[in-house]
Amino acid sequence: MKDCLFNRTTIWMSIFIVLAGFTFVTYAAEECLSPTALAVDNQDETIYIAEATAKQIAVFDPKTAKVTATISVPSEPTGLALTGDGAILYVTCGGQKGSVCIIDTQAAKLLRTLPAGHTPIAPVLSPDGGSLYVCNRFDNNISFINTAEGKLIKTIPALREPVAADITPDGKWLYVGNMLPYGPASADSIACNVSVINAETMAFDVDIVLPNGSTGLHDLIVSPDGRFVFASHILARYTVPTTQLERGWINTNAISIIDAGRKRLIETALLDDVDSGAANPWGLACTSDSKYLCVTHAGTHELSIIDIAAMLEKIGSYSKKTGKQTQSFTGGSYTAYDSSGQALSDIPNELSFLYGMRKRIKLPGKAPRAVTIIGSTAYVAEYFTDSLAIVDISTNSRPKPTSIALGPETQTTTIRKGQMLFNDAGLCFQGWQSCASCHPSDARVDALNWDLLNDGLGNPKNTKSLLLAHETPPAMISGVRGDAEAAVRAGITHIQFIVRPEEEAAAIDEYLKSLKPVPSPYLVDGKLSESAERGQKIFEKAGCSSCHTGALYTDLNTHDVGTGKDLDKDRMFDTPTLVEVWRTAPYLYDGRAATIEEVLTTYNPDDKHGVTSNLTEAEIKDLADFVLSQ
Question: How many CA atoms lie within 13 A of 167 on its CB side?
Answer without folding.
Answer: 24
